[in-house]
Amino acid sequence: MVLVIIGPMGCGKSTIGIMLARRLGWDFEDGDDYHPPENVEKMRAGIALDDSNRQGWLNTLRTRIDGRLERHEYLILACSALKQSYRQILGIDQRTVISVYLKGTVELLEERLRSRHHQYMNNALLTSQVQTMEEPQGGIIIDIDQSPESICSEIIEKLKPYGYIS
């Protein structure tokens, strides 16, 4: 089973993913680690990626997801997956690949971005990401206006009906 933690920058995908992986004993991967150098340079310069920039990256992530499913391994993957079409490429089916959307207000996201530094994500990209974000019509949706510990506990509770944890 694979959980894909989705949402715009600043919502806590990596923080929650790492914490959740520790609590569940699953592996964690950050989708940002798989961007090709040309994507990294664009984002560092504050240039939003378009669908063609994301295609190869999403295909790489899909290959990683498929490998985990084939080996019956558990994975938590942090990936913005802003559009439904991106989630389809990733194979999110809400059965074996489940999305967890970390939802927050623009004001909260901006506040969080002011207190962090990302290796290449330019904070100016937030507006583009929020405008691009298509809310999922399934999976798990979590309000991020709470502590990371509370968010993880809520995710774990909402995962129980899927049958992957007790």
Helix content: 40-55%
CATH homologous superfamily designation: P-loop containing nucleotide triphosphate hydrolases
Order of helices and strands: EHEHHEHEHHEH
Strand element count = 5
Structural summary, described in words:
With 166 residues, the chain is an alpha/beta fold. Helices cover 45% and strands 14% of the residues. The chain has helices at 13-24, 37-44, 51-70, 84-90, 106-114, 126-132, 148-159, and strands at 2-6, 27-30, 75-78, 97-103, 140-143. The protein has a five-stranded parallel beta sheet with strand order 2-3-1-4-5. Helix 1 packs across helix 7 (148-159). The longest helix has 20 residues, at 51-70.
Short account of what is shown:
The protein is 45% helix and 14% strand.
Keywords:
166 residues; alpha/beta; Rossmann fold
Furnish the topology, listing elements before pairings.
Blueprint: E1 2-6, H1 13-24, E2 27-30, H2 37-44, H3 51-70, E3 75-78, H4 84-90, E4 97-103, H5 106-114, H6 126-132, E5 140-143, H7 148-159
Parallel strand pairs: 1-3, 1-4, 2-3, 4-5
Helix pairs in contact: 1-7
